[in-house]
Amino acid sequence: MRDVAQAAGVSVSAVSVVLNKKEGARIGADARVRIHDAIARLGYRPNAMAKDLVTGQSRFIGLVADAIASTPFAGQIIHGAQDEAWKHGFVLLVANTEGNQDAEHEAIAMLLEHKVRGVLYSTWYHREVEVPEGLDESDCVLVNCYAAADLPAVVPDEIAGGRDATQLLIDQGHRRIGFINTTTPSPAHDGRLRGYREALAAAGIDLDPALVVEARPEQEGGYDAAALLLDQGVTGIFCHNDRVAMGLYDGLRDRGLKVPGDISVVGFDNQEVIAAHLRPPLSTVALPHYELGVAGVRVLLGLDAPASDGRVLVGCPPVERASIARPAVVPAGDPG
After folding, report:
1. Residue 129 belongs to domain with CATH number
2. Do 85 and 130 belong to one domain?
3. Cα(first)–Cα(last) distance of the chain, in Å?
4. Which of 121, 151, 181 is the last residue of a domain?
5. I want to staple 264 with a disulfide (CB 3.0 to 4.6 A). Which of 34, 107, 300, 324 is the partner?
6. Number of domain units in the chain
C-alpha cells in the first residue's frame, strides 16, 4: 500500500479507505482515480491472509464429501455449490475423503484454519449421518444428508419424487402399477414408497400390497423382480432406481415382452449413463444434485432459510422419455 500511496501522491490511510470501500470517508474523486490507476499499474493485490486475520473470515467456503467427487452424477453437487459460491464472491475448497475418518478430521481442521465462511458436509447418497467433530466451530449445512444434531439440512424430496414417478404411469391410464423398492433401509426406501401410495390414493386406486416387492438396488434385483410382478398382472412398473429398471428391461426381454408395448417402466435417479441410453430411453425422476449444491450454499450464506424442522426439500423433476405408453389392455370398468 505504501507503493500505491507514493505512486498516487496520497497517504497510506487514503489507499486503505479506498481499498476497503469505507463509507463516509472524505477522499476526493480525483484522488480515488489516481489510487485506482496506481493499483492497476503496479498490479497491487491485497494480502488476503492478513485481511482474514483481521475480519476473522475468508472468501472461502469449504465442502467436505465422502465420495461425491468420484461418482459422476453426484459430482454435480460440487458443480452447483461451486457456481453458487462464485456468484456471491466465494471460492469453494473441496475435500473428498472417500469415507476415511482421519482424512475427514484433517480436512475439517484445515478448513477451519483457513477461517472459511462455513462448511458444507455432503454424502453421495441421501442418509442420516453423525456430524464429525469440529463442524460446530463453523457455520455448517448438511447436503444430501441429515443428522439428529441441530444443523440445517438440504435434501431431495423423496416423497414428491415417488409420487411424480407413479403419476407418470397413472397419467397414461395404468391402474395395476407395481413398485420395486430397495431392500436397504433409507430415506429413499421410505419416501418413494410413501409417494407411490399417495399417488395411487389420489387417483382412487386401491393399494395392493402384492404389487410392492423389494429387491437389491442393482441390475440383478430388477431382473429377479420381473417374474414376481408379471404374475400379478401389472401393466406398469415404478423402479426404485435406474439400475433396477435396467435389470427389469432384461427380465422383460427374456420373457418376450417389450417396453413400453407390453409393460411401461419408470426409474428414479436419472443416471444419464443408464437412463438416456437404454432402448427405449427410460422415463425417470431426477435426483437434483446440482440444485442440492446450490441450495446448500444459499442456506449457508443466509440467502434462504430452512423450514421449521431444519430441512430444505429440493424437488426431483420427472424426465419423460420413451418407456411409457398406454396399457395394451385396459381392465373392464377402468377409464381408457
Report:
1. 3.40.50.2300
2. yes
3. 78
4. 151
5. 324
6. 3
User: Could you tell me if residue 248 is inside a domain?
Assistant: yes
| Full domain range(s) for residue 244 | 158-286
Instruction: Answer yes or no: is 192 within a domain.
Output: yes
d(CA 120, CA 294) in angstroms, rounded, equals: 11
Residues 6+ apart with CB under 8 A from 234: 176, 177, 178, 211, 263
Against a cut of 0.90, is the pTM above it?
no
Query: Which of 245, 241, 216, 263 is CA-nearest to residue 316?
Result: 241
